[in-house]
Every structure is written in C-alpha cells, then in structure tokens.
C-alpha cells in the first residue's frame, strides 16, 4: 500500500469488486475523455480471479481515502513493447474529490514507487488534447510535454488527438534533489 496525505493506493481485493465493477462501466463517472467501452462484469471478475488486476505488463491500484472510500483507480502498463517505459492512466470516480489534488498526489505516489522499485527509465501520461484537468496533473507532477499524437484514440464516436507527456528517471531525480 502506498500512503499519502489522506489517500492510499492499494491493490484491488475481491471484496472491492461489487463497488469497483459498476464504476468501471459507469461512463458518466469515468468522464468524457476515456473510450466508452463497457466490459461485462463476469469478464472483469474472471480477470481479477486470474491475476488480481496485477501482471508484469499491467497493474491497477485503487485510490481510497483514509476510511477506505473508493475515490478512483490508477494503473500503469507497458504500452510500447520495446520501450523501457510504462504509461500511467487514471480516473477519479468521486466527482466531489475532483480539483482537490487527489489525482496529482496519486500520480506522484505511483511515480515515486515505480522509479524506486524498478529499472524503468521513462513514464508517460497521455490524454486527449481537450482534457485540461489531466494535463494539469501531468504538469504539476513534473512531466514534460513531448508532442501530440494526432488521431491516436477513439473516444465517443470520434478520433481524438492525444498529448504525450513524459518523465525520465533523470527528471524525477532532479525534482527530488
């Protein structure tokens, strides 16, 4: 478990599935920037039973408050096979927790953990060019904009451009110094 100020990042437990699965399929709570894909609850349960949402190529953590209220989820995954990198994704389901620094703190906790515990050299956050809140998170956490991937994602019936932000291990070390 990763512990911050008023939040925790922890692995999903079986007891969380009844709360988590409806949120993963709640398009309104997920917001307008993620693809509007629905995953059958039985498939999500099977995936959890198989690997607990944690493999060498993909790991999902819950974002909770100190009372274990589910606020959101954050994940990291290997997006480009030949990169020594991970991409970070996240969603804050609790709309009342938005604009309170929860996601910035969650990203910082995960970034610190990944650089402290792995040999990764690069972390990326990609978001729709319209997703200004996510762009603010990336900037607050010290990621640098590298460019725009045109038409890279399909969200709610249209192809969208994606901002690409990255942080190298050397950037992270400089921020900590």
TrEMBL record:
Annotated Gene3D superfamilies: 3.40.630.30
UniProt keyword Transferase, yes or no: yes
InterPro entries: Acyl_CoA_acyltransferase, GNAT_dom, Ribosomal_N-acetyltransferase
Residue ranges constituting the N-acetyltransferase domain according to the UniProt record: 7-167
Name of the top EC class for this enzyme: transferase
Keywords on record: Transferase
Chaperone as UniProt keyword: no
The EC number(s) this enzyme carries: 2.-.-.-
Single GO MF annotation: transferase activity
Name recorded for this polypeptide: GNAT family protein
Organism: Parachitinimonas caeni
Highest classification ranks of the organism: Bacteria, Pseudomonadati, Pseudomonadota, Betaproteobacteria, Neisseriales
């Amino acid at each position: 478990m990763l512990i911050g100020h008023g939040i925790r990042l922890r692995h999903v437990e079986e007891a969380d599935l009844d709360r988590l699965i409806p949120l993963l399929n709640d398009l309104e709570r997920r917001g307008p920037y993620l693809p509007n894909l629905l995953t059958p609850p039985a498939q999500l349960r099977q995936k959890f039973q198989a690997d607990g949402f944690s493999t060498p190529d993909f790991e999902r953590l819950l974002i909770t408050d100190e009372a274990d209220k589910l606020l959101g989820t954050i994940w990291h995954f290997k997006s480009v096979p030949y990169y020594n990198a991970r991409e970070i994704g996240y969603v804050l389901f609790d709309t009342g927790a938005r604009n309170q620094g929860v996601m910035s703190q969650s990203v910082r906790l995960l970034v610190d953990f990944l650089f402290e515990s792995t040999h990764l050299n690069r972390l990326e956050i990609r978001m729709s060019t319209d997703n200004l809140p996510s762009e603010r998170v990336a900037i607050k956490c010290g990621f640098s904009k590298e460019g725009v991937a045109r038409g890279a994602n399909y969200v709610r019936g249209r192809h969208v451009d994606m901002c690409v932000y990255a942080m190298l291990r050397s950037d992270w070390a400089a921020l900590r110094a």
